[in-house]
Amino acid sequence: MEIVEHNGRLLIDLPAVLDLPTAAELRDLLIDAAARDTAADVVLNFSQVERVSTAATQVILAGAAALRLAARRMDAEAVPEPVTAAFTSLGLTAQLNQLTTP
Fold this sequence. Notes:
Elements: E1 3-6, E2 9-13, E3 17-18, H1 20-35, E4 42-45, E5 51-52, H2 54-69, E6 74-77, H3 81-89, H4 93-100
Helix pairs in contact: 1-2
Organism: Magnetospirillum gryphiswaldense (strain DSM 6361 / JCM 21280 / NBRC 15271 / MSR-1)
Protein name: STAS domain-containing protein
Domain STAS: 1-102
């Protein structure tokens, strides 16, 4: 994973499996994105994700909250059914909807 600047946004393409090790890597990327001297929104591209762990879900929601405190936004794009199901099983449907609603 890496941060790519694209159309005034910071884009992170997520891997097929968002497990504990990738959650740690994503956390580091989100810290880097939040620390950048920019007003750019962060966009997570979920198009390749097949499985997401609770740890990764926590990192995503914590990153979104941190960006909101910095008057910035995190968006989720191309969210597949396995990600929706994972958030739903954790009772976090509303939080996922906030990330996917423009």
